[in-house]
Amino acid sequence: MDFDTNCIFCKIANKVIPSTIIYEDEDVLAFLDVNPVTYGHTLVIPKKHYESFLSCPKDVLHKAFDLAQRIGQVQIKQLGAKGVNILTNCFEAAGQSIPHFHIHVIPRYEANDGFKLEMKELKNVNLPVLAAELKESLNK
Ligand code: 5GP
Ligand code: ZN
Questions:
Q1: pTM for the full model?
Q2: Does 2 map to a domain?
Q3: Which residues are catalytic?
Q4: Residue 20 lies in a domain
């Protein structure tokens, strides 16, 4: 399915609803997040509908991440960002609210500038057992 009539990002990609576009070509589009967490927070999407990063074809992924890289470079050069977070949430449990693959490109200015990714340590994990389980599936 290229276009999902219920999808807000499909509507943005097809100009059915407006957005503040900063780059577009045949395959990908970059526009400013309507609720930015920092100054310059940008979203990169494929124009076709893929639910998340996990189901996006590799050639499209390449184009989307290439554009995200260029935007990150411009945020540093043009906006004076000191760093950039690249984030893509897959599914609701991971915080995805719009089920059309998108990459957040979040320019960072300082530690307390509006965005925080908290990583709490998970205790008592048997790493060799876990690794064996993952390796088995990965190498099938
Ligand atoms: P998610 O939580 O799915 O990873 O991120 C969705 C992002 O899309 C949020 O940061 C939210 O602010 C942004 N967003 C939701 N609706 C719109 C919209 O209509 N226009 C724009 N420009 N951004 C949107
Ligand atoms: Zn869509």
A1: 0.97
A2: no
A3: 102
A4: yes
